[in-house]
Specification:
mainly alpha, 232 residues, 12 helices
Length: 232
């Protein structure tokens, strides 16, 4: 049995003159043969996996906690930052220290767009019946705990081992693996993994997140705010 899920942190770069514009990932083209009910099942599965489980909220906060020190280091190393007054330097540093929950908030506000964007890919990977099995499992306490563990291990670059599961989680996973959806999930784990990585990148590295960062920094920088940010 194996299950591969990873939400990968997407970093955005702040340069001396301006921020590199974040471009949202192009929505995958939906196969015209996918029935509306099939797409609806895929959306429901993504909601179960990302929202009902609490995974997207928890993982995005941890992801921003990991990446924020890198962003701060990039910013404070620029000539632009060093040209600021000490007060503004402190204000920028304080804002960045407190950015993780802000990034999390913007990620959650954009979650429905991400679900809509990736539902066709999930529908192409799993049948409607398989998606139903997966959704049911992801809404059980054991399924949510297992998925949360898998995702957080991915965020922190660790492997999830079945030996680490509680007896109830392991029993639920074994039972789930015997359903068509569970068997399909195990068989197609390698195909699911890049989709989930893309979901994580789209969610945490969205234009919504980078625009919020630029907008808030612009308020701190006042007249020194780079011109492209002033309309955000």
């Amino acid at each position: 049995m194996r299950f591969a899920v990873s939400l990968v942190v997407a970093c955005f770069l702040f340069t001396a003159e301006s921020a590199a514009a974040q471009q949202s990932m192009s929505p995958p083209q939906a196969d015209q043969t996918i029935a509306p009910s099939h797409l609806s099942a895929a959306r429901d599965t993504l909601r179960a996996m990302l929202l009902d489980s609490g995974v997207l909220s928890t993982a995005s906060l941890e992801a921003f906690r990991i990446v924020t020190p890198q962003i701060r280091s990039q910013i404070t190393a620029t000539p632009f930052f060093n040209s600021l007054s000490p007060e503004r330097q402190r204000a920028v540093s304080t804002y960045l220290e407190n950015f993780p929950p802000i990034g999390q908030q913007e990620t959650m506000l954009g979650a429905s767009d991400v679900i809509e964007q990736f539902a066709p890919q999930l529908a192409q990977l799993f049948s409607e019946a398989e998606l139903s099995d997966i959704s049911v499992f992801m809404r059980t306490p054991e399924g949510q705990a297992f998925f949360m563990r898998s995702v957080m291990d991915g965020v922190n670059s660790r492997d999830t081992r079945l030996a680490d599961l509680s007896s109830s989680e392991l029993a639920a996973f074994v039972q789930f693996s015997q359903t068509p959806g569970g068997a399909a999930l195990n068989e197609r784990a390698d195909q699911l993994a890049p989709i989930m990585r893309s979901v994580g990148e789209a969610a945490t590295g969205s234009v919504r997140v980078s625009n919020r960062l630029q907008h808030d920094l612009c308020a701190i920088l006042a007249e020194q705010c780079p011109a492209p940010w002033r309309t955000l």
